[in-house]
Amino acid sequence: MDDTAGLYVGLISGTSADSIDAVLISFAHGMPQLLAAHAHPWPAALRTQMLALAQGEAALDLDAFGRLDVALGHCFADAVQQLLEISGQPRDAVRAIGSHGQTLRHRPEGKHPFTLQLGDPCVLAERCGIDVVADFRRADVAAGGQGAPLLPAVHAMLLSRPGHTRVVLNLGGIANITVLDAGGRIQGFDTGPANGLLDAWCLRHRGEAFDRDGAFAASGQVDAALLDALLDDRYFSLPPPKSTGREYFHLDWLAAHPQLTATAHPADVQATLLELTARSVNRAIMQHAPDVEDVLVCGGGVHNGRLMQRLAELFAPRALCSTQRHGIDPDFLEATAFAWLARQRLLGLPGNLPAVTGARGPRVLGAVYLASRTDASTRMLSGAN
Ligand SMILES: Nc1ncnc2c1ncn2[C@@H]1O[C@H](COP(=O)(O)OP(=O)(O)OP(=O)(O)O)[C@@H](O)[C@H]1O
Ligand SMILES: [Mg+2]
Questions:
Q1: CA neighbours within 13 Å on the CB side: how many for 258?
Q2: Where are the domains of the chain?
Q3: Secondary structure of 104-121 as H, E, C letters
Q4: Apex CA 329: angle with CA 240 and CA 295, to 5°?
Q5: Angle at CA 158, nearest 5°, toward 313 and 99?
Q6: Pocket mutation for ligand 1, best pick of 195, 307, 311 (most atoms within 8 Å of C-beta)
């Protein structure tokens, strides 16, 4: 019997930590198909704590670290339980959960590069009674890669069009692009900040978790001197492979620029941050995919009308639209990738693209955490028969 048959759950909370995205996926001929999706809210206090930790505003002792890992594991388990309820599928129909966890630190450079995701997979396996695959990034980092982005393989599978150069743009907390070129080559990297900075500035000045439809930004004027100074950051001109996170692009990074004056109007700064996202994405695409014919957008930023408008203006006359136009739900593509990665792990197949991450070679990603079983095969294995 095929030990990889069955449905897969994909789970992730991204750099914005806006929600836990959970999807139930079937694979027909290896192609992921979305059966059910659920965005599970984080408890507010936990989210505040995670964001403070992720951008280096708070520290944790080892006890608190261990407790946080377990608390997050329980939240991920709650999300899976709700997903299965919504889908009407029994847990026995699910072969495995692919859980990315919550990134608290991503430092793929330096003498001892590392990437750290929390959300105890053992808790998840125990609570759900389903095998879990987790820890997808570290094998790639150990092989000299960035451990990110891991989405391009799935973008290529679902959205490539032979003979056509297309870019898939994910507007998450950080923005990343996948270049699918006419010759079938796949490239991908993080271009820089997206929703993470917009959310943080909006929360500080409006008390709201995000700038709905970009209305706050649209009410201000771009500050050209500040924009130029921000665009001057060396990250934007680094060649790929490269990846980044909240530990780099956060409000202290913004404040470190003297062009951000104490009298700056908050709406103008929001407008400037939105423009920074649009310009840095546009620059990266024009540099790495000059013959791009269309740009398909996924991630929460697709709902920011102002940001989408600016991106469309910069890319004109090329087309820019949501992946929804191509039948792919833009809010759940990232979670879908982790269901696919879990299946790759069980098949013993690589999950990374070395040309994207910079790893020394293809690597099977993730570690398997088995759920406790009481069926005959396990009893035999444990010698209980
Ligand atoms: N209606 C909306 N208007 C403006 N922004 C929105 C809207 N809906 C969602 N967003 C933005 O999308 C963000 C969430 O996007 P997403 O879930 O793709 O990011 P993420 O979880 O950080 O993912 P990633 O791992 O790709 O960085 C929210 O924090 C918010 O900034
Ligand atoms: Mg999210």
A1: 0
A2: 7-148+332-381, 152-326
A3: EEEECCCCCCEEEEECCH
A4: 45
A5: 105
A6: 195
**Considering only CA atoms, which of 147, 198, 125 is closest in space to residue 371?**
125
**Which of 370, 367, 342 minimizes the C-alpha distance to 142?**
367
The burial class, CB within 10 Å (0-12 / 13-18 / 19+), for 369 is: buried
Q: Whole-angstrom Cα distance, residue 39 to residue 209?
A: 16
Both tokens of 54, joined, read: 């992720």
Pairing label, strands 294-298, 166-171: parallel
User: Residue 16 class from Cβ within 10 Å (0-12 exposed, 13-18 middle, 19+ buried)?
Assistant: buried
Alpha helices in the chain (DSSP H): 44-54, 62-87, 121-128, 138-142, 152-159, 195-206, 215-218, 224-231, 234-237, 251-255, 266-288, 305-315, 333-347, 354-357, 376-381
The CATH code of domain 152-326 reads: 3.30.420.40
Report the first-to-last Cα separation within the chain, whole angstroms. Answer: 22
Report the nearest-CA residue for atom 21 of ligand 1. 14
Q: Considering the domain 7-148+332-381, what is its CATH architecture? A: 2-Layer Sandwich (3.30)
Low-confidence ranges of the chain (pLDDT < 70): 1, 374-385
Give residue 385's pLDDT: 35
* Residue the block writes with tokens 């987790």: 134
Instruction: List Cβ neighbours of 57 (8 Å cut-off, separation of 6 or more).
Output: 250
Which pLDDT belongs to residue 375? 55
CA distance 193 to 175: 6
Nearest atom (ligand 1) to Cα of 21: 17
What pLDDT is recorded for position 381? 44
Question: Which residue of 117, 136, 210 sits with most ligand 1 atoms within 8 Å of its CB, as the best mutation to test the pocket?
Answer: 210
- Residue 376's pLDDT is 43
Q: Which pairing describes strands 166-171 and 174-180: parallel, antiparallel, or unpaired? A: antiparallel
